[in-house]
Amino acid sequence: MGYFPVLLDLTGRRCLMVGGGPVAERRITGLLAAGARVTVISPRTTPTLAALAAEGRIELESRGYREGDLAGVDLAFVATDAGEVNVAVAREARERGVWVNAADDPAHCTFILPAVVRRGDLTVAVATGGSSPALARAVREELEAYLTAEYATLAAIAAEARRELRVAGRLVTADAWRRALGPEVRRLIVERGRDDAKQRLLELLGVEACAP
How far is 42 from 60, CA to CA, in rounded Å? Predict the structure, then answer.
């Protein structure tokens, strides 16, 4: 099966997690960081999830999954050791038109989760179509070593430069951007700091400065 890669804006979206173990915890941490509203259904949870519920950051229903739990849900996840629960959640999701991810069970997924590297606003996702999560993790680890901390700053100053160029009505080609975002600017971030790196980026893009 081919998958179409996409990044979702989950701000305020209602996401359901069936399961309360370590896998569910990792998924939920990412969902909360994306601004989702998370409900967890599980008779048992990790201490971290219990603390999140006590703080009011997630809704927790301490019970097993029941038919009808996906009503009004935008996105569903299931992370249990019970295959029959995966099947039941996937069936209800299909019936309701809800996208669902079942951990380590691609046959019952309508979307899968990639291995992700984040450096500020820069996000790199790696996936193998669910065929080899271990390979996706291995590639992610290689990328983590390559995408060092200055890439977060590079992403931020590139975004600022793009906004400023738009305000000034200046057009820059894709080739110019590709050349400008090379090793020189990344080196300047480390050696001379953010401001000098941004100024050099603008120079490489063919402009001296842009009005704020």
Answer: 8
